[in-house]
């Protein structure tokens, strides 16, 4: 009886305590997120408050606060995760000029993020980096210079197109505006005036950006995402603007973002940007002052690779550099954002938590990936209508470094798809058996090929490398397994693959060792790269060390002497939060001779050359450089020389060449317009990119893509890379490109009729509607993208023209359809030097409409604003 009574009393006490806890305001889902955040702040210590401003925020068990990661990526599908849908790279999506489809893609992406996140949590996994409900997408910086390696992440060079696409992304990711919970928290990045170079982004000071360029070019997309899409995060950039680092810039983060635009949500720092205050920009003396400077300017969450400056906020308070009340202001936004997601509430009351894993890479999402890949295909040249190809051709050749290459289609900031249709596979599916001859032909950039010496190695009498694995990162204790590897190293944990039996997917290390006896005195090269920590030793001396979050192959030359034995060791350790990859081979380099290739092509008239670039060459702050490339950017916008030479050899042999270019940026294609009969810009097309390319090449899909960036003739048309003036840049300020913004060919022809305007004289608060008849004058159904540009008469300092409207219209062969485009008052806004802001000034304006930005493709009508 006594025991029963005690148990009952304890149970009642537990129930009472639990009931009380449920009644605390911050635990009540019926209250607003702001009310809950205010209550929770009163219960936190100063040290706890600071920790909740880390991008990897620790759990606070006493208050039921779970660990939370702010850093996940969803650039074109959930990144850094396996078995997800991988859509085309954003610059390719921009070529579609289809913001409706963009919305559907990011609605699907947010479904996959929610499903994967809740599945992981329910299976006992923690909320980790890259699998969270905060996604740092989209990148809406202006792609002002084709040399920038990260331009592929953007929606091109035009502020209006970027705004429309960015708004669609945010709405798709965050869910309906009237929903109780946000589906995800999207992020507009990188604020502001940020588009390379990668090599100087931590020290660059932009002190000569004209106010007009700032307000007309660099800020409009951010303004649209804040004021139209209610984006819940803005990421501040690395560089300085007018002497102040962007993450410590009061003008950007307070005056413009919060005071002028009314942004109420979270500002996150680019990773390491606060630390840059004292390590790179030298505007702060140490981490304590940097933490106070960043927070006072408006940064709410700090991202770091290691060592938070914000952990010093309590000391900054004690030294009077910042007040606890100021920190509470930041924490209110941070916690309200988390409550908006419902991540502190029971899944039963959060509808998004019920999204099943069956949505991930389902048929509907695969179709979206294919649809966008098809719409992104941009036909730049089609001499003598060589395309579409005939299916009854006896045989065609598909050659080039990107033809049989899955990862090139995935772009950067990508997930790993369930399956990939690469380009040679897509073409083979259209041809009879044995109808396609494939040959890699050449490397992306290197003028030599490597003859592997891997098979000439042995260790303890066994061919190849001895591999030893430990389930820790220090190669300590007893190994998990030891085995012999006979082929060049190419290992990955992607797809939940172990490096070897019993080796963990995380927290492991490896040692690969062998001996090599040189047959002659010569220079050999080691080709190696890793996602993780890798060191290469030869005879006990380190010759290469990398510590990277992606696999970038390095070329390491090494001189060997005939008959001498060399002990080769490769040491590897997996990095926290990252998948592990390693690649290693070595051998002798020999010159490329295209005569053998030409011999293989005997009897074949049509050759599809699939080349261009890849994310091994262009990307974010990359440590590997090749001729024409530096740190992820380019120094020369021409196609790499080895590919140009291959195309010249094909032309000299009399081949008809269809060039499929994979790149995230514009190429100076002047030589290729001569050596190639057709040029198809395929971007980085995602998991179904190869099928989309084949559909276009064989005429199963009529191309409709338009360039979202200017294709310049060569690098001489570009100003200095660090010069952020727009003079001579983009279609808005230059008129002599190779291929203009908005240009793209079709397999049919279109005629643009005379526009009818709803009004020709308006006030500065009125809209105008254009009705533009478009006729398909060819024999195939097709899609045209009608574009409307505005030019202010007499504005010699302004852009030549600037896009303010577009419309995709599908038109059957021989039919006419009317494109109706509305221009709101904002379409006539330009920067007014006198008032220091954007205004709609009285005066004459020209409306230019057509199917590219080139003057020859545009018709003009004038209007007056009173």
From TrEMBL:
<dbReference type="GO" id="GO:0045493">
    <property type="term" value="P:xylan catabolic process"/>
</dbReference>
<dbReference type="InterPro" id="IPR036881">
    <property type="entry name" value="Glyco_hydro_3_C_sf"/>
</dbReference>
<protein>
    <submittedName>
        <fullName>Beta-glucosidase</fullName>
        <ecNumber>3.2.1.21</ecNumber>
    </submittedName>
</protein>
<dbReference type="InterPro" id="IPR037524">
    <property type="entry name" value="PA14/GLEYA"/>
</dbReference>
<dbReference type="InterPro" id="IPR011658">
    <property type="entry name" value="PA14_dom"/>
</dbReference>
<dbReference type="InterPro" id="IPR054850">
    <property type="entry name" value="Xylosidase_Xyl3A"/>
</dbReference>
<dbReference type="Pfam" id="PF14310">
    <property type="entry name" value="Fn3-like"/>
</dbReference>
<feature type="domain" description="PA14">
    <location>
        <begin position="460"/>
        <end position="602"/>
    </location>
</feature>
<dbReference type="InterPro" id="IPR036962">
    <property type="entry name" value="Glyco_hydro_3_N_sf"/>
</dbReference>
<feature type="signal peptide">
    <location>
        <begin position="1"/>
        <end position="21"/>
    </location>
</feature>
<dbReference type="InterPro" id="IPR017853">
    <property type="entry name" value="GH"/>
</dbReference>
<dbReference type="Pfam" id="PF00933">
    <property type="entry name" value="Glyco_hydro_3"/>
</dbReference>
<dbReference type="InterPro" id="IPR013783">
    <property type="entry name" value="Ig-like_fold"/>
</dbReference>
<dbReference type="GO" id="GO:0008422">
    <property type="term" value="F:beta-glucosidase activity"/>
</dbReference>
<dbReference type="InterPro" id="IPR002772">
    <property type="entry name" value="Glyco_hydro_3_C"/>
</dbReference>
<dbReference type="InterPro" id="IPR026891">
    <property type="entry name" value="Fn3-like"/>
</dbReference>
<dbReference type="GO" id="GO:0046556">
    <property type="term" value="F:alpha-L-arabinofuranosidase activity"/>
</dbReference>
<dbReference type="InterPro" id="IPR044993">
    <property type="entry name" value="BXL"/>
</dbReference>
<dbReference type="GO" id="GO:0009044">
    <property type="term" value="F:xylan 1,4-beta-xylosidase activity"/>
</dbReference>
<dbReference type="Pfam" id="PF01915">
    <property type="entry name" value="Glyco_hydro_3_C"/>
</dbReference>
<comment type="similarity">
    <text>Belongs to the glycosyl hydrolase 3 family.</text>
</comment>
<dbReference type="InterPro" id="IPR001764">
    <property type="entry name" value="Glyco_hydro_3_N"/>
</dbReference>
<keyword id="KW-0326">Glycosidase</keyword>
<keyword id="KW-0378">Hydrolase</keyword>
<dbReference type="GO" id="GO:0031222">
    <property type="term" value="P:arabinan catabolic process"/>
</dbReference>
<keyword id="KW-0732">Signal</keyword>
<dbReference type="Pfam" id="PF07691">
    <property type="entry name" value="PA14"/>
</dbReference>
